[in-house]
Each structure stands twice: as structure tokens, then as C-alpha cells.
Amino acid sequence: MNDFSLWDIVRNLLMALRWTVALSLIAFIGGGIVGGLLLFLRLQGGKIADRAVGVYVQLFQGTPLLMQLFLAYFGIALFGIDVSAWTAASVALTLYTSAFLTEIWRGCVASIPKGQWEASGSLALSFGEQMRHVILPQAVKIAIAPTVGFLVQVIKGTALASVIGFVELTKAGSMISNATFKPFVVFSCVALLYFVLCFPVSLYAKNLERKTHGRRA
Fold first, then answer.
1. If we measure between CA atoms, which residue out of 126, 134, 152, 139 comes closest to residue 206?
2. What whole-number distance in Å separates Cα of residue 135 and Cα of residue 43?
3. Using CA of residue 28, residue 34, residue 39, residue 42, what is the dihedral sign?
4. d(CA 134, CA 117)
5. 22-37: average pLDDT
6. In the prediction, which pLDDT does 105 show?
7. pLDDT value at position 2?
């Protein structure tokens, strides 16, 4: 099997790339939903909820993603639940993503001038109405660039899912390398495919950030 051509290697890597993209989207969308709920709790749930969410954020930001993947894969199994590598990777990356997005979005909301809250409060708007009509429209514009930029970290983070047996781009590269005895060629292709995925997202995030700063200026 060591007579694989370059096209054979790239074709097999492209097939695995689909799972990297799928896992990235699940983690990003799922993390966004969970992160949005946590942000609401942090803003409206009182001091206890704020502290609880703060602990959650610090827990996932302060521990390696690799460790979180191991705990999701092996820890849940301790309760007698059969967990696939796909499920464990999705859960771990979703929770990891939600912690960072919550903090990113909290910072964006906190950046809104206090006068905006006071002005909307003087109109007798409820908290939900303040958020919907005044605060969020401004915070969303600020949050778009860092949120899109964090997607790059999510994409690169999926590579760690290979340690629990999930066959994404990095795992497929390792398997193909073992079969072809061409590690330099294989992992050069893997790196190139990650670059093809991440560079446009990074470039788009920088353009968004530039436009946002230009409007605010």
C-alpha cells in the first residue's frame, strides 16, 4: 500500500476533511447556542448565576482541550453510557466553544457605554427590551469579528479529537502516513488543507474587525 500517488493521498484527506468541517460547525453552532444562554444567565440571573457561569468559563478556559476530550470520552462511559468518539468530540468541543464565546460576548456587551443602559432604562424598557432594541444591535456589530475569528481556533481544535479515535483530518493523515510511509508528504497536505480552511476565515475576521473599527471611529 506504499505506492499511493499524491492524488490518492489528497483524495483520502479530502474525504476526512468533511468530518473536520462537520465537527467544527457542530461545535461552533452548539457552542453559540449554549454560550448565548450562559450570557443571558450571567446578565440577568443575579450574583449566584454570574459566579456559576464565571466558574464554568474559567474551568473550560483553564484546562486543556485534550483533557476535556478524554473526560468526555472516558468519563461518561463510567456511568454505563456507551459514548462514540463522534459524540464525545461534539460534546467536548461544544462546551469548550461555549465558554469562550460567552466571555467574548460578555465583553462586547460590557463595552456598550453605560449611558445607553441608562437612556433605555429611562424609557421604562424591561431588561429584555433593552437588550433587544438597544444593547444587542450595538454589541452584535462589535462581536462579529472576534466571533468569526474564534472559528479558526475551533477548526484547529478539532485536530485533538484524533486522540479519542475520531477520524478527522489529522487522524486520517496519521493513518495514511502509516500506510504509505510518506509522513512528510502526507502531513504537508494535512497542513495545507488546514490552511485552506483557516486562512479565508482569518482574513474575513480581520476585514470585519477593520470595518467595525472604522465605523466606530
1. 152
2. 12
3. negative
4. 8
5. 96
6. 94
7. 56
* Residue 213: pLDDT band with limits 50, 70, 90: low
* Per-residue b or e along 141-175, where b marks 16 or more CB atoms closer than 10 Å to that residue's CB: ebbbbbbbbbbbebbbbbbbbbebebbbbbbbbbe
Residue type, 136: L
Helices 183-216 and 169-180: crossing angle in degrees, nearest 10, is 160
| Rounded distance between C-alpha atoms, residue 101 and residue 5, angstroms | 42
**31 contacts 97 by C-beta, under 8 angstroms:** yes
For the chain, the first-to-last Cα distance in angstroms comes to 59
From residue 35, give the alpha-carbon distance in Å to each of 25, 60, 105, 112.
15, 12, 8, 19
Q: How large is the average pLDDT for residues 169-176?
A: 94
CA 36 to chain centre: 13
Residue with cell 467595525: 212
Report the distance separating Cα 39 and Cα 44, nearest Å: 9
Contacts of 207 (CB under 8 A, 6+ apart): none
Asked whether the beta carbons of 88 and 72 are under 8 A apart, the reply is yes
CA atoms within 13 A on the CB side of 216: 14
Band of pLDDT at residue 193, cut at 50, 70 and 90? very high
